[in-house]
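Next comes the chain:
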Amino acid sequence: MYRTRWLSGRGVERPARHSALAPLLALLLLPALARAADAPAVDAPTTIALPVGVPPPETPGIPPDAELEASKAVIGEILIDNQNIFNLDDPKDDIWLFRSANHLHPKTRAHVIRKQLLFKPGQPYSRRLIDESERILRANSYFYDAWIRPVKYHDGKVDVRVTTRDVWTLNPGFNYSRSGGTNSIGIQLEELNFLGTGTDVRLLHQTTVDRTESLVTLSHNHAFDGFTQAALTYANASDGWTHELTVNRPFYALDTRTAGGVSGLDNAQTDSLYDRGEIIDQFHDQHNALSAYAGWSPGLQNGWVHRFSAGATYDEHLFSPLATGTFLVPEDRRFIYPWLEYDLVQDDYIRLYNHDQILRTEDFYLGTLATARLGWADSSLGSSQSALIFQSTVGRGFRQDGSTLLLAGDFSGRLHNGELYNGVADASIRYYYEQSSKWLFFTTLVGTKGWRLDLDNQILLGGDNGLRGYPLRYQDGTARGLFTIEQRYFTDYFPFRLWRLGGAIFFDAGRTWGQPPLAQPSLGLLKDAGFGLRIGNARSGLGNVIHVDLAFPFETHGGTIRSVQFLVQTAQSF
């Protein structure tokens, strides 16, 4: 809910949704949990029990994909092999704790998996649709991995087996994370895959640097027809509330022809402005928003997708000072506007391993991506001012000889009387070099530039978004840059057959520019170095990689910064 601008760009971390210790605690508490419901029987009559991270073998005698497509073969039987968390056919997994986990965990239901496939029996066999269906399945947090393999060819039909590996999805108990010298704690009960249906149910009470809140969320990314997203949030906090509802059927696949959705938000909270890791001002923000859109596409043509969308948005912020005193209060904003959007997507993906995850299939997008949205808010229709509101995104990837380069950028803002307001441009460069199957060199450069920013929109840099040796939200500016180098190491160590381990040695250097209201002058280039442990959740969907880091700032600025920063947090990548 905190709307401060974080470092952006593909792959740059935002604050993690799950705590760092929750996955560990959930697995340790398995024997004390009661089974929620019986899992349905496996849909496939014959399964292949797989070790964690090992894909199913190819079936001998199946013609190559090009030959099957040229012969106009069609999909025959679709076998759903929804495997449980632990492979009890493996003696190392066949222990009482893991048997209890399998017994307590309702497996993902076969029909939930089947609805997410882009092909059906009787349709032409297509390797592209098989690969894209795998990516859709792997995007679910309740699967460790997913594979689709042809298993039989007969009478012009290709039978396929869809194999998924479940992970533990019930998160009970205590949350803890630490970054930038600040702790976040809480208690929660969350089930990412309620009764094996793919529904995320969450009850949470937590205290963070911003607020104490209690919330209930329900969400499902594959509701109804299998590709409709539905989410409901109801939260009460120490500084306000959040009520949010979204129903959206996106362009879920490259060849999807139509899309549409609606969303509504009623949010009240205290916004805090930060500098040098401290709150320098606060004010109350009442935010109401409503949006609806519809989209159309001619589908995938010669490796490219063109998408066209039209919608309307109501977005209002009403600001007021706090009783304790406020130095500055942003001007109220209301924008009511129709908009048009164009998206360009290229079909270009690659599978990689040991890059941002530990021994998991990673789908990297290497194609050209471009998005542009334009809307007009007119004061005669109730907007605070007449303005052209725009958003844009571009991205491109490159791959050669074990090196991967990802470029991304975005630019947004509004034009009023020929001047740019609340303009923000982000850019990022991410580079991976595979030194071996276990060693990876990684570096990234990200930057942000702002123009006439709204007072409540800060560009911050600190320990919670990349500059690991410094307090969170440490520097405020109108522009920033961050350079990071990491040497990553991926081990084969599999402690307790629950986690995959890795490590990293890192160096960060970043700074801000400009002089926002109330902020002190920039301290110039800030640098830190450190090392850390990476814990990949091989059996849990409650967080991808746990970071445990020690970071050492090069300058303590007169002892105002600790000489060692200890960080524990859950991130989406290594």
In short: The first strand starts at residue 74 and ends at 83.
